Amino acid sequence: MLKLLKKHFGYDSFRPLQKEIIDTVLAGKDTLVLMPTGGGKSLCFQLPALTFDGITLVVSPLIALMKDQVDSLTANGISAAFINSSLSPKEQDDVMDRAVSGDLKILYLAPERVGSYGFTEFLEKLDVNLLAIDEAHCISEWGHDFRPDYRNLSFLRRKVSNAPVIALTATATPLVRDDILNQLGMKKDSVFTSSFNRENLNYSVRPKYNATSQLIDILKSHKDESAIVYCFSRKNTEEVAKALSRAGLPAS
After folding, report:
1. Do residues 206 and 214 lie in contact, with contact meaning Cβ atoms separated by under 8 Å?
2. Within 13 Å and on the Cβ side, how many CA atoms surround 249?
3. Is the Cβ–Cβ distance between 227 and 219 less than 8 Å?
4. Where in the chain is the domain with CATH 3.40.50.300?
5. Using an 8 Å Cβ cutoff, are 171 and 35 in contact?
6. What 3-state DSSP class applies to 18?
7. In angstroms, rounded to a whole number, what is the distance separating the alpha carbons of residues 84 and 112?
8. Which residues on neighbouring strands pair with residue 59, listed in sequence order?
9. What global pTM score does this model have?
10. Residue 223: what pLDDT?
């Protein structure tokens, strides 16, 4: 396992929980992973994909992320591709041909693709040995980012019922977590929750009385450092940037 980790991903060791999650997936068990952004969720299905025969299907709602991950995997010597609306029909057909011929280890799919015409016939030609659902909270109507196309995944799950499923999210309340498990027909005995505590971050909540003046005072106390200021609207963002610039704090 460590040899694959080093060869294809360049790491000498696993991050917390990664090995336990990967071992569970390799044992053929369904797995739900709650891990913060940047915690290493993708490795939890990418590395098992190299161990399993056949192909791993990854459902992701983020087109840009699909491309980034496929580019990274390809650069690391792993045969991967994606199918989403950014590809022409001809390009999609070419990717499907590669998948059917066994040329791919990992195939990323947009959720709307699962319900598209001809998908069932395509799926029946594949040797699927792992199903990964990224941003799994999108399947739940109780979640903040529900996507109707994710409801098709219960159908996909049934069609590849012999393959283990790993569902991953960085944001899921207990209600959303249970909904994910129910929608995908997963057991509750393989749920991994990573710590969401970022040791490099400190949180401070202050009463608001003059937000702009308070902000300027805070930023001046960190004058030689960079900062990100979140605002409610584009207009508010522009107003705050101008106020900071007038106070001698370069902002844009």
Report:
1. yes
2. 24
3. yes
4. 2-193
5. no
6. helix
7. 8
8. 109, 133
9. 0.80
10. 80
- Each residue's pLDDT tens digit, 98-154: 999 999 999 999 999 988 889 999 999 999 999 999 999 999 877 667 888 888 899
Q: Which residues of the chain have pLDDT under 70?
A: 143-144, 195-199
| Cβ-contact 18, 40 below 8 angstroms | yes
Q: Measured between alpha carbons, how far is 187 from 151 in angstroms, rounded to an integer?
A: 18
Q: E strands of the chain, at which residues? A: 31-34, 55-59, 80-83, 106-109, 128-133, 165-169, 191-193
Fold held by 2-193: Rossmann fold (3.40.50)
DSSP conformational letter for 144? T
* C-alpha triplet 198, 76, 95: angle, nearest 5°: 110
Tokens 């369904």 correspond to what residue? 30
Cβ neighbours of residue 18 closer than 8 Å, sequence gap 6 or more: 40, 43, 44
